[in-house]
Amino acid sequence: MRLHLSPEDAAFRDQLRTFFTTSVPQSIRDAVAAHRELTKEQFVEAQQVLNGAGLAVPHWPVEWGGRDWTPLQRHIWREEMQLAGVPEPLAFNTSMIGPVIATFGSQEQKERFL
Question: What domains are there in the chain, each with its CATH number?
Fold first, then answer.
């Protein structure tokens, strides 16, 4: 399926594409593209790059690192990560543990873990 992006969404896609292909180390992206298992250190490094740019958990509440993006922007984010060979943040952490802490955790837990 080919999406017809607005000029703003096309620019957003291009920004993410550039970031993913220039900020995440080539060795990590090559390993992902070759379907090789990443080391813990490679996962941590990739996650640190995403965290540093505020791109690790765009679906979370803004106060905890989310981006308040549209569903299309979140789709573009995921698609561009896959195309660039960037490992996605670990689903268990970003889709299960984090949202539970954000919803039910104490303020101290939120500040420590999110």
Answer: 7-113 (1.10.540.10)
